[in-house]
Design goal:
The structure holds two protein chains of two kinds. Chain A is mostly helical. Helices cover about 75% and strands about 0% of the residues of chain A. The radius of gyration of chain A is 20 Å and the shape is globular. In chain A, about 50% of the residues are buried. Chain B is of the alpha/beta class. In chain B, helix 3 packs across helix 4. Chains A and B meet through helix 6, helix 7, helix 8 and helix 9 of A and helix 2, helix 3 and helix 5 of B.
Chain lengths: ~325, ~250
Amino acid sequence: MKRLLFAATLFLAFPWAMDALGHGFYVSFASRLMIYAIAATSLNLVLGYGGMVSFGHAAFVGTGAYVASILLVEELTSAWLGWPLAIAAAALAAWVIGALSLRTRGVYFIMITLAFAQMAYYLVNSMKAYGGDEGLTLPRRAQLGLGLDTANETVFYYVVLALLALVLYLLHRLSRARFGRVIGAIRDNETRAEAVGIPVFRYKLACFVIAGAAAGLAGALLASHGRYVNPGVLHWTQSGTLMVMVILGGVGRLWGGVIGAFVLLGLEHLIADYPVAWIAALLPNYQQHSALGVGIVLLAIVLFAPQGIAGLLARNRNAAP
Amino acid sequence: MLLLSAVAKRFGGVLATDGVSLEVAAGEVHALIGPNGAGKTTLVNLISGGLAVDQGDILFEGRKVTHLSQHARVLSGLARSYQITSIFRSFSVLENLALAVQARSGTSFSFWRPVERERFLFEEASSIAAEVGLEEKEESLAATLAHGEQRALEVGLALATAPRLVLLDEPMAGMGPEESQRMVRLIERIRARVSVLLVEHDMDAVFRLADRISVLVNGRILATGKPEEIRANAEVRRAYLGDEVAA
């Protein structure tokens, strides 16, 4: 509880503090991190809570991003229309892809989700009317009305923060409700779950669709945030990045996606923008290879904290009450 | 209660179940014995719905369940335990059993209300824990239980689904004599309310518990009868029992 209050205070005061320090850029940067946190959290529902190693989560982020973007290009600028539609479209995509791919297990499931996501990637690439491989520049961000100007970085930050908080709270409730127990049981032992009378496929599909819907929201926010979208948002490396975030932050942990997104993107930014003299002396041009640094951190986490950073924090708390 | 007619299952070139017809009467403990590789577990998988039947029909309480999914069979009252322990290892004993109770008490498409508020799930789970002798271990993580306790939980999970027929696949596998005795007493207690198809290698237990015994050899039923008939059957002794009970 103390930690939650601390985190809430930090997040709420952040734009104010950055303005005061003259680092306004970081408000927009933090919005981006939070959007990725929503995407990673949605993947964590499938991967961590449900035990389904989906390697195609970018397809749902991309579906949300493209639906929201196309609406904006077509001058339908209301977020109240665009974001729910992006969520619904991503949920539908997840339903179709899930219904087909959840009939497989293990490596086959990983491969088939990857294949579907790549199909979506090439499909979007070929949509010449909406930018094709060059992507789409959006005239503006989606509009919320209610006196909230989403073009203002601080307003947009608080909108994203509210949605992230909502997603986390829903995940928290869901994980403790009947549904959460069932998907936890399926992750633990699918055969046994079926043998105590649980229609396993139905619950896995529902889990997959809910996660797809949340990913669609992240996609819509991502498009609005940068006022730009391109097929890269559906590329398999994006699915990989989300997976790395979840593993880094904590598989099956409420805050895993948030911590993973912040650490991964924060680390990339740090390495690329803040040269460290002694590392540069050892490894010239190391800043162009930020992925290497991230890889080393990831390796360390997997080796020394298999429960991710969230797991590490929880362990420390248990050790020192 | 359960009626199999000419059920067959083929794995590639191997006919694992070769036209098995079998009846388990209501209120009966029916033992299924046979040498290793006879196809006992395959038969249990076919009856429970874990494997699809190639030919033949399975009737449960007069209703054809041949092509029913496993979870649907469980919900209609046909549950099983596994020879190789299959439990929710990351759940506590109570959570394991409560999940099985939850599975038969309405939909789990419930996303808001914490499970802990549903007292009756845990009350029923608790009474099943007591029934299988795990009342002291309710809060223990299933993965940390001793082998015998995990076997008890295995059977508890089947009972928690409130079955009318339970398929017990070698419930005493790997148990010491004392634990086996406890399992025998458990089956004696539950037989009043649930029919049992018991696959078991422990012949003392089989002859003590079974009302009738069927002998499965090479995927075929060699004989079905009362324990004394099976004991006296020359063919069965040659094929399976050997000197063990002849002595």
